[in-house]
C-alpha cells in the first residue's frame, strides 16, 4: 500500500476514535500533509539518502557508466531549483546529488563576510546549510504534491477517473537526494570533528568529506601552502566521523577521504615510528633530509632522526614546517588513499592541479593494486582553466601523433582566435565526454563541481545589471529573465507560489474552512502567468 493510502487509513481510524472533539479534523487533509512531509527529521533523511548512495556505489562497481553527479549549492533555494531542473529535464533525480562546498560556505555564508577557504568560517554554518538545503527540497515535494492533490480534487468533482493521478501521488519521486558535505579538515582535533560530524548528520548529511590537511593551517585545495598531517592523525578523524554515524543510527553513512598530497609539499610534524615499516615510518620516508656525518656540525635546536640505520636531518623551514622530497606527491597520494580505505573510508578524493584523465587513472590504478574496488569523488573544479587545459592536451596529443600543429601557439590557445578551430572543437568534445571517460578509465564514481553556482550567480547578475542600468533598461529583465522563464517553463516564474503562498492557502482551508483568507484570488497578479 502507498504512504498516502496507509496514512489515510490510519488517520481515518484515529480521528473517528477521538469523537466530537476532533470533528474539525479531516482525515484526508491530515493524510495529505503526512505525505507532503515524508521526512520528519534530518536523521530520517540521512538514513534514506545513505541507502541511495550505497546502492549507487554498487551500481557503479557493476557498471562504470552508472556514475553520479552533483553541483555545489550555497543556498537552499539554489539547491531546490537545481533539483527541480534535474527532475524536469532528466525525468528523475536518480544518480543526482547536491554538494555542500566549504569554499562557498566561507565565501558566501559566514557572518564575518566573504572569507577565503581556510576553515575560518563558523563551523555551525555548515550544518545549518545542510538543514536549509533539505528544508527547500522538502518544500519542493510539498508544492508539487499539493498540485497533484488539487488535480485529484478537480477530477473527483467532475466525476473523472482518478487512477492516473492517484498513481502519480503513490509513486511520487522526492527531490530529497544525498548531500556530500565538506567538513574541511575537521575544524579542530578528533573530538571537534566528531561533534561537528554529529551536527551535520543530524541535519541530514549521509556523506561527509574530510581532508588530510592540518586543521588550523587549511588552504583551498587549489592554492599553495598546503600542509598535510601524518596518517595516524587523519585516521583518528575518520574514526570520529564513523563513530558519529554509528551513534546516530546511520549505519551505512559514507566517508570520503580527501588527500591534498599531490600539491602539498609540507608537513607540520614528524610522527613517532613504533616499528620498522609502520605508517609513521612510511610517512617519514618522504621527508627531505640531509645525512648527518658529524654530530658537531649540528646547530642549536636541530632535529635529527634515524632512517635505515643512518642519522639524517629533516629540512625544516623558518616557520617550523618540514619539507617533503620533490616529486613524491604521486606516491604519497597512493599511500594516503590505500591507508584511508583500509582504515574506514568508503570513497576517495584526490585533489589535482588539472583535469587530466591519464593522470588520475595512473594514481587510481596504483591504488587498485591494493584495494580493487577503490573509487573517487572528483572535483571538476572551476579553479581549472578547462578551455586552456584541454586545448593544450589536444595540442600535445596531435604533436605526439606527428600531426601538423604549426598553426597553433600552445601558450596562447585560450585566445578567441582559436574558438572556431579544429583543435578547439576537438578539445570541447573531450570536455563534453570528460565525465564518461574519467568514470570509465579513472575510477570516478562521483563528479561534482564545487562552486558553479557562485559563478552562475555572478555571471547572470552581471548580464542583468549591464542591461538594466544601460540602454536596455527594463527590457534587460523582461527579455533576459522573465521571458526566458516563461518560454522554458520554469515554475519559479510564479515566485509567490514557489515561496509557498499556494501551500499556505491550502493549509488555511484545512484549518479554517470557508473562513480562510487566501492570497490566490482573482487579484493575485501571478494569475498573469497561467
From TrEMBL:
Coiled coil: none
One GO molecular-function entry: isocitrate lyase activity
Cofactor: Mg(2+)
Positions contributing to Mg(2+) binding: 182
InterPro entries registered for this protein in UniProt: ICL/PEPM, Isocitrate_lyase, Pyrv/PenolPyrv_kinase-like_dom, Pyrv_kinase-like_dom_sf
CDD domains: ICL_PEPM (cd00377)
Organism expressing this protein natively: Alteromonas sediminis
Pfam families: ICL (PF00463)
Protein name: Isocitrate lyase
Biological process per Gene Ontology, one example term: carboxylic acid metabolic process
PANTHER family membership: BIFUNCTIONAL GLYOXYLATE CYCLE PROTEIN, ISOCITRATE LYASE/MALATE SYNTHASE
Catalytically driven reaction(s): D-threo-isocitrate = glyoxylate + succinate
Highest rank taxon of the organism: Bacteria
Active site: 220
UniProt keyword terms in alphabetical order: Lyase, Magnesium, Metal-binding
Binding note for cofactor: Can also use Mn(2+) ion.
Keyword DNA-binding: no
Thylakoid as UniProt keyword: no
Amino acid at each position: 500500500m502507498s504512504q498516502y493510502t496507509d496514512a489515510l487509513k490510519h488517520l481515518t481510524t484515529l480521528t473517528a476514535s477521538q469523537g466530537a472533539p476532533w470533528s474539525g479534523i479531516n482525515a484526508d487533509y491530515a493524510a495529505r500533509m503526512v505525505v507532503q512531509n515524508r521526512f520528519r527529521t534530518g536523521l530520517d533523511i540521512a538514513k534514506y539518502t545513505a541507502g541511495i548512495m550505497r546502492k549507487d556505489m554498487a551500481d557503479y562497481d557493476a557498471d562504470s557508466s552508472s556514475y553520479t553527479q552533483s553541483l555545489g549549492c550555497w543556498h537552499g533555494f539554489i539547491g531546490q531549483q537545481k533539483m527541480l531542473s534535474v527532475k524536469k529535464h532528466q525525468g528523475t533525480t536518480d544518480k543526482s546529488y547536491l554538494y555542500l562546498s566549504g569554499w562557498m560556505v566561507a565565501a558566501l555564508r559566514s557572518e564575518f563576510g566573504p572569507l577565503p577557504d581556510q576553515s575560518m568560517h563558523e563551523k555551525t554554518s555548515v550544518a545549518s546549510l545542510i538543514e536549509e538545503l533539505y528544508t527547500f527540497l522538502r518544500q519542493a515535494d510539498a508544492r508539487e504534491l499539493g498540485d497533484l492533490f488539487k488535480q485529484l480534487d478537480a477530477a473527483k468533482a467532475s466525476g473523472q477517473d482518478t487512477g492516473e493521478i492517484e498513481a502519480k501521488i503513490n509513486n511520487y519521486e522526492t527531490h530529497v537526494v544525498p548531500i556530500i558535505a565538506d567538513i574541511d579538515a575537521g575544524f579542530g582535533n578528533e573530538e571537534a570533528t566528531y561533534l561537528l560530524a554529529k551536527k551535520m548528520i543530524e541535519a541530514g548529511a549521509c556523506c561527509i568529506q574530510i581532508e588530510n590537511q592540518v586543521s588550523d593551517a587549511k588552504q583551498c585545495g587549489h592554492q599553495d601552502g598546503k600542509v598535510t598531517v601524518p596518517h595516524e592523525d587523519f585516521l583518528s578523524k575518520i574514526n570520529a566521523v564513523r563513530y558519529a554515524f554509528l551513534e546516530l543510527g546511520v549505519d551505512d553513512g559514507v566517508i570520503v577521504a580527501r588527500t591534498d598530497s599531490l600539491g602539498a609539499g609540507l608537513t607540520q610534524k614528524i610522527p613517532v615510528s613504533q616499528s620498522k615499516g609502520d605508517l609513521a615510518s612510511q610517512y617519514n620516508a618522504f621527508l627531505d633530509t640531509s645525512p648527518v656525518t658529524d654530530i658537531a656540525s649540528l646547530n642549536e635546536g636541530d632535529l635529527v632522526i634515524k632512517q635505515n640505520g643512518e642519522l639524517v636531518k629533516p629540512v625544516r623551514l623558518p616557520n617550523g614546517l618540514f619539507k617533503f622530497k620533490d616529486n613524491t606527491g604521486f606516491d604519497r597520494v597512493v599511500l594516503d588513499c590505500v591507508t584511508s580505505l583500509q582504515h574506514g573510508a568508503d570513497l576517495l578524493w584526490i585533489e589535482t592541479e588539472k583535469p587530466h584523465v591519464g593522470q588520475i587513472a595512473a594514481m587510481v590504478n596504483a591504488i587498485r593494486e591494493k584495494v580493487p574496488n577503490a573509487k573517487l569523488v572528483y572535483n571538476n573544479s572551476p579553479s581549472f582553466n578547462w578551455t586552456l587545459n584541454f586545448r593544450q592536451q589536444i595540442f600535445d596529443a596531435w604533436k605526439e601523433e606527428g600531426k601538423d600543429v604549426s598553426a597553433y601557439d600552445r601558450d596562447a590557445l585560450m585566445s578567441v582566435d582559436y574558438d572556431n578551430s579544429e583543435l578547439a572543437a576537438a578539445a570541447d568534445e573531450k570536455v563534453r565526454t570528460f565525465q564518461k571517460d574519467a568514470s570509465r578509465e579513472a575510477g570516478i564514481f562521483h563528479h561534482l563541481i564545487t562552486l558553479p553556482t557562485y559563478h552562475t550567480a555572478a555571471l547572470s547578475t552581471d548580464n542583468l545589471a549591464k542591461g538594466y542600468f544601460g540602454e536596455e533598461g527594463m527590457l534587460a529583465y523582461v527579455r533576459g529573465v522573465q521571458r526566458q522563464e516563461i518560454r522554458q517553463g520554469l515554475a519559479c516564474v510564479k515566485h509567490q507560489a514557489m515561496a509557498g503562498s499556494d501551500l499556505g492557502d491550502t493549509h488555511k482551508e484545512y484549518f479554517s474552512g470557508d473562513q480562510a483568507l487566501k492570497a490566490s484570488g482573482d487579484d493575485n497578479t501571478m494569475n498573469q502567468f497561467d
